[in-house]
């Protein structure tokens, strides 16, 4: 096989979604096909430095657990921007502990391709894409136009409305307008014009950061929701004075957390403060004489967007492409459960939401969903992969919102669950993302000869990879959640290996062994798995499989969609190794 293609895995960044990006970076590094690619982990810190980091640091719980150094944090878990102005020597020492700093001019010597798993402003909005184009590096996902559209929610709404004809009420107003508004009248006007309840959104954030639903006819709740989306918080003297020192420190920690707080640096009374300890000290001083004080993020939004609250079935669906650029929508995932919106906590920190594929509705409605998705994908400048969210209303209208041009990429992310429905593992999906991205960069007319040569080289390697037999490993798990989770993890490890080809096998309680299709290894738990194995393939998914069969064949060699009973003799004849999930041991047959 030809020399491996060097892939710079970019993660982190300056946006509030940097921790989600950190999880995606770990996924790509672990699951990328080691027979085809050599991953080079590039951590982008929140000041914009590019750091080729030591790979073991991908296994920390959070960015703040390894960068910056804990002995500089003054007792708080902070990001590097909280350390204030650093001189060159201080910065060098911090970076040296985790890796080495590189410059964009170094990119061509380090990588052949950039797998950018960075979300939000300065990452997903065209900034990184433009930088990589300047240095001639092909990168993952859409180009400059699709990226710019994908980060701007009001612009998305207007364009989607033009493309699909959907009608969804929304309005925006600026921070300046909010500052001078008669808030009671504004609240009443919004209720009359938008409806009630309504949704407040920060227009440039992803992962549902800065999303609030105003459910009560309360001016206080309305004001709090708007302030949340402007990333500002008001502290009251009456509440602050009742807090213990420990409670105050906890409040400062919450302010540092980017999923629930406004983050640092902040501005208070005209001062820019970078560290939670400094903010705590400032609040002690100011609230000694003042009744309230407002703290504003240095990276606050300039305007907010108000949307009508849509009642209906919430879904999320990835759209990918054939080699010729023709879009294919994947099976849409319905998000349901006890809560009424798929916000940050329900996406990443809650077991309340449940998911099913496809949306539980008629075949006609599923086709409607796909029709709207494809119109949006094809018209808004997207390519390679985009995840688009939406609602199916009780009267069968499809309302789309929030296209995500670089979807979250932890192993349990929706995009990988949907790719599994057409027969691709996480590893094969990553290979698809890389290969199709190179194909789309060729369409831009820049570095065409070099990119074509890279594409030809990769195509040869993929064909050899798919057609070269590997040592088959039966990943055998019992009907317990613990063993199922182990099997999911080992499937990922073996899939990315140059040596092994994993085959999931369930050792059922009835004493029988069953070979499991790959899509059933992406369920939430063993209960979800058990409920899925007896169901016939949905006719809508059968349609999608037919449309996507050339993709499945190219990257996986095909897809066996049926669960099959295996005898011990068949297991021994067809497998070279068995990994037993109950004992976590690999045995050669």
Automatic annotation (TrEMBL):
Organism field: Emticicia soli
Official protein name in the record: D-alanine--D-alanine ligase
Pfam families attached to this UniProt entry: Dala_Dala_lig_C, Dala_Dala_lig_N
Highest taxon in the source lineage: Bacteria
GO molecular function (one): ligase activity
PANTHER family found in the cross-reference section: D-ALANINE--D-ALANINE LIGASE, D-ALANINE--D-ALANINE LIGASE B
Keyword Magnesium belongs to the record: no
Presence of keyword Ligase: yes
């Amino acid at each position: 096989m030809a020399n491996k293609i060097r892939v710079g895995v970019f993660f982190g960044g300056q946006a509030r979604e940097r921790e989600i990006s950190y999880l995606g970076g770990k996924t790509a590094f672990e699951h990328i096909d080691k027979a085809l690619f050599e991953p080079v982990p590039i951590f982008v810190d929140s000041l914009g430095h590019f750091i080729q980091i030591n790979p073991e640091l991908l296994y920390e719980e959070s960015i703040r657990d390894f960068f910056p150094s804990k002995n500089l944090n003054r007792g708080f878990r902070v990001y590097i921007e909280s350390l204030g102005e650093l001189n060159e020597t201080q910065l060098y020492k911090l970076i040296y502990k985790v890796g080495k700093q590189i410059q964009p001019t170094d990119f061509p010597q380090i990588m052949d391709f950039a797998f950018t798993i960075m979300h939000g402003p300065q990452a997903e909005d065209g900034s990184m894409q433009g930088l990589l184009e300047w240095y001639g590096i092909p990168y993952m996902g859409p180009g400059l136009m699709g990226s710019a559209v994908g980060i701007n929610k009001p612009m998305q709404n207007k364009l989607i409305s033009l493309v699909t004809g959907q009608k969804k009420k929304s309005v925006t107003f600026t921070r300046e307008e909010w500052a001078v508004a008669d808030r009671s009248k504004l609240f009443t006007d919004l209720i009359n014009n938008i409806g009630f309840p309504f949704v407040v959104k920060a227009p440039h954030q992803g992962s549902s950061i800065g999303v609030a639903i105003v459910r009560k006819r309360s001016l206080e709740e309305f004001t709090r929701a708007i302030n949340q989306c402007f990333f500002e918080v008001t502290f009251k003297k009456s509440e602050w004075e009742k807090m213990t020192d420990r409670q105050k420190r906890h409040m400062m920690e919450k302010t540092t957390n980017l999923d629930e707080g406004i983050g640092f640096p902040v501005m208070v009374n005209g001062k820019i403060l970078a560290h939670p300890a400094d903010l705590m000290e400032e609040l002690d001083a100011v609230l000694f004489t003042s009744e309230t004080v407002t703290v504003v993020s240095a990276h606050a939004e300039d305007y907010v967007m108000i949307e009508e609250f849509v009642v209906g079935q919430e879904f999320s669906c990835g759209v990918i492409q054939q080699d010729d650029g023709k879009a294919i929508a994947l099976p849409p995932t319905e998000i349901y459960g006890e809560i009424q919106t798929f916000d940050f906590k329900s996406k990443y920190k809650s077991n309340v939401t449940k998911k099913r594929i496809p949306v539980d509705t008629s075949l006609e409605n599923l086709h409607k969903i796909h029709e709207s998705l494809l119109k949006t994908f094809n018209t808004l400048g997207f390519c390679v992969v985009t995840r688009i969210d939406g609602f199916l209303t009780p009267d069968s209208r499809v309302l789309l919102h929030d296209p995500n041009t670089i979807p979250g990429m932890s192993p349990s992310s929706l995009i990988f669950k949907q790719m599994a429905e057409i027969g691709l593992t996480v590893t094969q999906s990553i290979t698809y993302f890389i290969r199709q991205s190179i194909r789309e960069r060729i369409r831009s007319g820049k570095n065409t000869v070099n990119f074509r040569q890279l594409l030809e080289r990769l195509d040869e390697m993929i064909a050899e990879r798919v057609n070269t037999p590997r040592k088959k490993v039966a990943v055998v798990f019992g009907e317990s959640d613990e063993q199922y989770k182990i099997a999911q993890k080992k499937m990922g490890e073996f899939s990315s290996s140059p040596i092994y080809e994993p085959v999931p096998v369930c050792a059922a309680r009835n004493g029988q062994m069953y070979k499991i299709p790959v899509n059933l290894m992406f369920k939430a738990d063993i209960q979800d798995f058990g409920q899925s194995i007896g169901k016939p393939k949905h006719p809508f998914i059968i349609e999608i499989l037919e449309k996507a069969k050339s993709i499945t064949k190219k990257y996986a060699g095909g897809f066996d969609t049926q669960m099959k009973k295996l005898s011990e003799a068949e297991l021994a004849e067809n497998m070279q190794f068995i990994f037993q999930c109950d004992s976590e041991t690999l045995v050669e047959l």
